[in-house]
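Q: Got a minute? One more chain.
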Amino acid sequence: MTSVTPSIERISLSASAAQTALLALRDPEKARFFNRFFKAGPGQYGEGDRFLGLTVPAVRTLAKQFAALPLGECRKLLQSPYNESRLLALLILVTQTKMAHVSTRRKIYDLYLANRSRVNNWNLVDSSAPSIVGNYLIDKDRSVLRELAKSTVLWDRRIAVLATFAFIRNNDFGDTLALCELLLGDSEDLMHKACGWMLREVGKRDAGVLEDFLRRHQQQMPRTMLRYALERCTPEVRGAAMSGTF
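A: Always. Here it is, folded:
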């Protein structure tokens, strides 16, 4: 009877193998720093998040090694309590969606939205939402973004705004402006930063569009959002907008 030797490649491309690779690189000192940096303490925005202490370049290196990880295994990896494990899963999905056929891109998009409760810190959102959500929606109905922007969940709202980065890169600014207007009264500083960042990106491509938004909303914009939006503007525009006289 012929014995069958399991494929080494198949064994290695699993969530458990990826998790083992991550654990081998853990750094307790960096983990303690990340716990503070990503506000994982009681009552903070990242409450309950856990860290292994891996740098982003280290996680990106592993993402290349596990680039062909099946979607089901990525889903498993997303359930990890460790931020770096979820980041690894998301970076793999970002790589896969860039090369995938439209049907697979839809599967990745659906997986992402169905598991977005695991995309629950700003580094996870920012590294994934533009590529997985934004790029998928470029030529499709985008009403889901408005629904996410109205969510009580901070990370849903940040996903919505960051997804529009993909549109901005195509000089398509309408959704960014509409969401930023919708979120003017948001109570979270992380949303003020996200909106301000995307507005700044709009202004880098079309200063007139940003300046028109500022004229209409400068007095209602949270100060953090305003400062972020103005970073690439002229000193004259910055001064006038910050004083509410632009």
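A: The radius of gyration is 20 Å.
Q: Perfect, thanks.
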